[in-house]
Amino acid sequence: MVLRGALLAVGIAACAPELATPADRQRATDRDDADRIAAAVAGIPGVVAAHAAVQHDVADPLAARPRPLAPPRAAVAVVVAADVDEAALVATARALAGASGVAPARVEVAVARAPAPATGAYAQVGPFTVAARSAAALRATLVALLVAIAAAAGVVAVGQRRRGNRPQ
């Protein structure tokens, strides 16, 4: 009887819905805000990639003495092309992050320059475009794979003949 009651309690607890805490809801809001900031910054001309993180403190509803909440903060990492005005970009990123309730002074922006595109000779090997110096190695790899596939097909065909199963 006790075992049945314990199993029933465990079963009910296992089926209970998960309740989101205030911290869970705030983290979800922070992630949404960060995604919006990153998308807005990524839309600036010359920006190659952008990522953002936002953090708002959450009051603990069960705390005996509530602690003071830290002001919200944000971080934005941006990869830019070589010809972008970095100061204007930082100011714009801070303003965009400010739209989510973060003071511009509490927004850290890290800017990195994208490497210059590689220049040099390229070769076309079938559907692949590779550096000219890699074309011979790619051809050798493709030939080796073709030989391996043909050998595997031959092994399967010989095995089928030995068993007396002829392909239809």
Structure in a nutshell:
By secondary structure, the chain is of the alpha+beta class.
Structure characteristics:
flat; 168 residues; GMP Synthetase, Chain A, domain 3; 5 strands; alpha+beta; two-stranded antiparallel sheet
Uncertain spans: none
How many structural domains in the coordinates?
2
- CATH level-1 class of the largest domain: Alpha Beta
Report the strand count. Answer: 5
List SSEs in N-to-C order.
HHEEHEEEH
Gyration radius from CA atoms, angstroms: 30 Å
The CATH superfamily of the largest domain is identified as ANL, C-terminal domain
Descriptive overview:
This protein is an alpha+beta fold and 168 residues long. It has four helices and five strands, in the order ααββαβββα. The protein is flat. The mean pLDDT is 86.
What order do the helices and strands come in, and which of them pair?
Blueprint: H1 2-15, H2 22-42, E1 47-55, E2 73-80, H3 86-98, E3 107-113, E4 122-125, E5 128-131, H4 135-163
Parallel strand pairs: 2-3
Antiparallel strand pairs: 1-2, 4-5
Helix pairs in contact: 2-3
